[in-house]
UniProtKB/TrEMBL annotation:
Its EC number is 3.1.3.5. GO terms for molecular function: 3'-nucleotidase activity; 5'-nucleotidase activity; exopolyphosphatase activity; metal ion binding; nucleotide binding. SUPFAM superfamilies: SurE-like (SSF64167). This is 5'-nucleotidase SurE. It comes from Roseicyclus persicicus. Belongs to the SurE nucleotidase family.
Length: 261
């Protein structure tokens, strides 16, 4: 199997090393793992592409490249330049340092990389490691993802739904904030919503007197509703969520037609 991997934490991120090991296990002895990751951290860029300026790319080693762009840029670079027509069988994005559950999905560059692969008609999976008191002090805080990642991916490849519709499905996987041995299993769940937390800003004044704003995330230990991603993670389960890029509110189409047409 030929696998393309990327992330949003950057080419030197520890989570990328975890994903490289997972991908090598999935690809097998005769397979290929290609890495195209951002040269610098790109957390929070979502599905951004560098449409108005060029992206420099550098080869760091065999099948290993860094691009000065977003995860979506990296997927495009991998497909149309680095791999030179050798289409990957699978695209993996992650393993992100921190969860990409609930509203985080909408901001995540990790999700953006998988999303771009899906828009390119390729099977794609985003993987993220939830952080919390149960794993932040471990020698390897990615232990749950490292131990269970390959197994989850194999199950998705064997039993997941891989359609070829216009907005094809991709998968969002979050590993709970626990040591690997304490992971309770896997739950297939919907994307949740944290009702008690929001992104915001925190103002600071620099030594030169200029005022700056830091974007500030909300609490991540707030559970979502039962049957959704962050709730499952905080209960000790790996969450798997099938996703599409289609943003249409299909449940409102008929009512809106009746009102406006």
């Amino acid at each position: 199997m030929r696998i393309l991997i990327t992330n949003d934490d950057g080419i030197n991120a520890p989570g990328l090393k975890v994903l490289e090991a997972i991908a090598a296990e999935i690809a097998g002895p005769g397979g290929e793992v290609w890495t195209v990751a951002p040269a610098f951290e790109q957390s929070g860029v979502g599905h951004c592409i560098s449409y108005v300026h060029p992206t420099m790319i550098a080869e760091l080693g065999p099948r290993r490249f860094a691009a000065e762009g977003s995860p979506a840029d990296c997927v495009l670079a991998g497909l149309y330049d680095v791999m030179k027509g050798r289409t990957p069988d699978l695209v993996l994005s992650g393993v992100n340092r921190g969860n990409n559950a609930a509203e985080n999905v909408l901001y995540s560059g990790t999700i953006g990389g998988a999303m771009e692969a899906a828009l390119q008609g390729l099977p794609a999976i985003a993987l993220s490691q939830y952080y919390g008191p149960g794993n932040v002090t471990l020698g390897n805080s990615f232990e749950a993802a490292a131990r269970h990642g390959a197994g989850v991916i194999r199950k998705l490849l064997d039993s997941g739904h891989w359609d070829e519709t216009d907005y094809r499905i991709f998968y969002n996987v979050n590993f709970p904030p626990l040591p690997a041995a304490e992971v309770r299993g896997t739950r297939v769940v919907a994307q949740g919503y944290r009702r008690e937390t929001r992104f915001g800003v925190e103002p600071h004044v620099a030594p030169n007197g200029r005022r700056f704003l830091w974007i500030k995330g909300g609490r991540q230990d707030v559970p979502t509703a039962p049957g959704t991603d962050a709730h499952a993670n905080l209960q000790g389960y790996i969450s798997v969520t099938p996703m599409r890029v289609d943003l249409t509110a299909h449940d409102r189409l008929e009512a809106l037609r009746a009102a406006l047409e």
